[in-house]
Amino acid sequence: MNSLLNVILTTDFAFSVLRVTTPILFAALGALISNRAGIINIGMEGIMLVSALAGVIVSSYSGSAWVGLLGAVLAGTLIAGILAFFTLQFKTHIILGGVAINMFASGGTVFLLYLLSGDKGSSTSLPSKVLPSIDIPVLKNIPVLGPILSGHHILTYLSIVAVFVVYYLLNRTPLGLRIRSVGENPHAAQSVGVSVVKIQYMALLLSGFFAGLGGAYMSMGYLSLFTRDMVAGRGWIAIAAESMGRSTTVGTALTSLLFGAADALSNALQVLKIPAELIATLPYVATVIGLVIYAVSETRKKNRKVKSPVVK
Amino acid sequence: MKKKILALMLLTVMVLVTACGSGASNNGTSTTNGNQTAEGGETASAGKLKVVLIIPGTLGDKSFFDAANNGLQKVKEELGAETKVVEMGADKTKWEPTFNDIAAGDWDVIISGGSEITEMFNATAEANPDKKFINYDTDIDEAPANMYNMSYATNEVSFLAGAVAALATQSGMPNANKDNVIGFVGGMDIPGINAFLVGYIQGAQYVDPSVKVAVSYAGDFVNPAKGKELSLIQYNSGVDVIFNVAGGTGLGIFDAAKEKKKYAIGVDSDQAALIKDTDAEKANLIITSAIKKIDMAILGAVKKLQNGTLEMGKRDVLSFVDDGIGIAENDIYKNVLPADLQAKADEVKQKLINKEIKVDNAMGMETSEVEAIRNAVKP
Lengths: 312, 379
What we know:
The structure holds two protein chains of two kinds. Chain A is mainly α. Chain A has helices spanning about 1-10, 10-35, 45-60, 65-90, 95-115, 145-150, 155-170, 175-185, 185-190, 195-220, 235-245, 250-270, 275-280, 280-310; strands at about 135, 150-155. In chain A, helix 3 (about 45-60) runs antiparallel to helix 4. Chain B has two domains: about 45-150, 3-Layer(aba) Sandwich (Rossmann fold); about 155-290 and about 325-375, Rossmann fold. Chain B has helices spanning about 1-20, 25-40, 65-80, 95-105, 115-125, 155-170, 190-205, 225-235, 250-260, 270-275, 280-285, 295-305, 330-335, 340-355, 365-375, and strands spanning about 50-55, 80-85, 110, 130-135, 145-150, 180-185, 210-215, 240-245, 265-270, 285-290, 315-320, 325. Chains A and B meet through helix 2, helix 5, helix 12 and helix 13 of A and helix 1, strand 7, helix 8 and helix 9 of B. Chain B: InterPro entries: BMP_lipoprotein, Peripla_BP_I, PnrA-like. Chain B: It is found in: Cell membrane. Chain B: Belongs to the BMP lipoprotein family.
């Protein structure tokens, strides 16, 4: 038990939680926006993968990490645009479209990688760039907080800023209001003159934008290269985090952090004498526990509502 | 309605492109088969040896499959054989028909490898007794009379890698620390990976019984971010050299090594050579790699088969003696590892060649035995 605390109560561990959370958080925010507009984008995994590759390719050919980031984000937005085009213009089922995007990304990235670098496994032969990590001037000298919060990758900070931006966007702007109204009742929204298709387009493009940032982080910060299927389920975890966060910005951010922490914990605990298989189940156990707590609290709320008139 | 049809068509195209991307080989396979049947009609010309290599996956992994392909190239150049490589892709349902199609052609020697295909490959060999078959990497002993099986003494090469790691962690090398701890990041907790682990631990303990080994498993072969996380934790806990036995996940280990300025050891092929051109700083931290010399093994087997000296129907475990395994003694190894330590590593290698050292093999071990070995050296 003592050694367990030694593993968890370190600044290294807290630092790694934020690092692990970043890609999940970006994608979860993207999923949140599209979900609030009533359109479930399950193509997050694929969009992240395409963006990860785009970042590597653009940065290696342009020689600039920032141009690479731009390329990654544009690629993510473009793929989301294609998805939106099929779903909203041609009324393809969104789930089918998402599945197609994911399959297309898995194979298409390898195909493109092979065309450009002659490799099918990884981009080690492309001289791609990475975005910098940042030390925050005053903060970095504060004990405990400094080593945890300072020195992160620039996109990690951006993901935290993005939480506030998305919160503001959804709750304080006209676009946010329209996104929410379209999601809750498209017919009502249409009756007051809101173009449902246009708003859903916007929402999907935004979800692609955030997934693009998540993908760029994977290949240009977290790691310095692209490997096939490197997103490894983080897009799906993000969708789970969004729905466990009950489609609220704060809830989504917190559940993303929970998943990140569980994942970081499963990595850290491997140094202890606990079977690796048991540790690997941690993120999923965290999900189940979270869902149980949520279900119990919801049921209680409902029961209270049902009972209250009787008491009167 | 028209719009819907157009949408459906475009989607189909997208899915098709995808299918081609993941298994560009599949198209290749079908055209190959077409050619073959055409060729099969004619009589084999000029008595040239015709050798085909069937890859259960795709080329470009910079490791296992590419090494086999290099072997085939050598067969072509050195033995003047007519060769062809067929990539079957990852879809296992396509493997058996491909094997049958190719066996029906006029190839003299059919080569493939991996434990996954062994059963199918054996069945194909039994159905085609007039052809010769070579399986370049399998753990299974039984083989039909026209099949030659190879495997590699991964436990021995890992023993040597473990010895190098233990020597490095105690050395005055610039990025080595005082802690006597080395690391191991494996893809999964399975016998094939643990064969490396047990050899690695025993090699390290042979050099110094007080060396501890931190062991992590990623549970995944395509998750480099996880590989990086696990390595960062090991490096932070005092590990200064990590043995990568995790496929694509392992590429994250080298990223972590660069970030923390610590050492790593590659696997299967000379992994420093792959990174050297794009990231010399990272490559210089990969002190060596534990290599399976699949290319030489394939060349050797085909050579023997041509001379008629290859013993079919059995499995050979290739070791240092047969030049089937080795560690990468490249420029990085020679420059980074001090000369006296290289001499010590050579000594260990010589003892392995002379069979003075016996290395245990995790392949036949109970899970609990591996567990005990692992726990005995946990830091």
